[in-house]
Amino acid sequence: MKTHNLTLPLSPAEIDKLKINDKVLLTGYLFTARDVAHKRMMEIIQKGEVLPFELSEIALFYCGPSPVRPGNICGAIGPTTSSRMNSYTPYFIQKGLRVMIGKGEISSEVQNTIKEYKAVYLTMAGGISAYLSQFIVSCETFLWPELGPEAIHKLLVKEIPAYVQCK
Amino acid sequence: MNMRYVSRETIEEELTKAINYITFNPDPELPALLKSALADETNDVSKDILNCMLENIKLAPKIEIPLCQDTGSFIVFAEIGNQCSIPDAPLSQIINETLIKVSAELYLRPSILKDPLLHRINTGTNAPAVIHISIVEGDKLILHIAQKGGGAENMSQLKMFTPSANPEDIIDFVIHTVQVAKGNACPPLIIGLGIGGNFETCAILAKKALLAPLSHKNPVLEYAALEQNILKSVNRTGIGVQGMGGKNTALAVHILTAPCHIASLPVAVNLQCHSHRHTTIII
Asked: CA A166, CA A107: separation in Å to the nearest integer?
């Protein structure tokens, strides 16, 4: 199993070098988004309005963190099921998104779009939140705090482990 | 008849301790099963993830970060002895008020919505719990509790077989369920199988089956053999840890059965992720 130390955002050349099942240690910013955030993001773009980040420069992490205990850097963090985002992902890839992180298999439509646009889907192991918390440098609620765990959170991560599942 | 009174305070105290425990500690037999899966595994990614899972189990109670961010629906199977009285408040109220208090104290993620379809607003408290109450003989109050994550729950299935079905058909149904779930259910899995009863009973049995100790075997030898047969068949699917391939897709299979109608053979498969968080309180 080959391991790559990568800093986000990933360049096309970096994505190109990755092989299925390679391990990646990611450093940089991850933006969390679950079902509701995906719906809202899509509505914003479809209305012709602008998202507060460039899709091409971020990694989208399918994750709903738990609240942060005072004195801690972050709450419990881990991936949720990626396939729930299947209906939104091809659209976001067409709008520039290149890195998605979650768990489980994605639809053939999403896989085909990933291949067409030279994007990458990474799997992170679920149910290991205490372990993953060691790789979080900072965590802030970035957008829609009223959604609680379903808000968009901006996480700074250092060498957080994931595996290449589709590219 | 002499009644034994159990106070609200006693239930709150025991429940608080138990929720604290399962938030940071899985089933006590789980680490040994993960270690034997690791020893047996040949897939590199699966081995790597199994090591992370074992490390996670060591770390969680030390740093007080939950085993999984999804601390789930709170499930309670309550067995109230016919000589046990809980006079202070309805048991479900005591459970929900304790859950709300402990969720806040432990900074658990609120994962429960008020309405499933039209108004998906978070209750913000993890209440209400899913509570099943039965009256049994004796003077004890027994609470089997679990935190059940959404990923594995979403991939669970129920099928109303006809009486012509045989054990092989049931095995195929479990394998089908696991294959559709793939990595979504966070394998290696614990599989609860409810056979018999009716539409709702088989689902409840499948959930209850998950709350047995991991090493528990069905007391009927033929069903214990079926549990082992299903476990071996599921592990031959090659889905592996987190769907990444390998020999370890499930760690245990538990079957519970109930009498059923002459026309029916209901079967429910409730999948449980490797983050198997449950315990039993006896008051």
From this structure: 11
Number of domains in chain A: 1
The complex scores an ipTM of 0.95
Name the catalytic one among A31, A32, A38, A99. Answer: A38
Contact B185, B269 (CB under 8 A): no
Could you tell me the CA-to-CA distances from B220 to B163, B226, B257 in Å, in that order?
A: 20, 10, 10
What 3-state DSSP class applies to A103?
Answer: strand
Mean pLDDT of A11-28: 97
Distance CA B221, CA A50 (A): 64
In a domain, B259, yes or no: yes
In this complex, how many residue pairs, one in chain A and one in chain B, have their CB atoms less than 8 Å apart?
135
Residues in contact with A119: Cβ distance below 8 Å, sequence separation at least 6, in sequence order: A15, A93, A97, A98, A99, A100, A113, A167
Active site residue A38: yes
Contact (CB<8Å) B65/A128: no
pTM of the model: 0.96
In a domain, B157, yes or no: yes
Count of the separate structural domains present in chain B? 1
What are the pLDDT digits (tens) for B188-225? 999 999 999 999 999 999 999 999 999 999 999 999 99
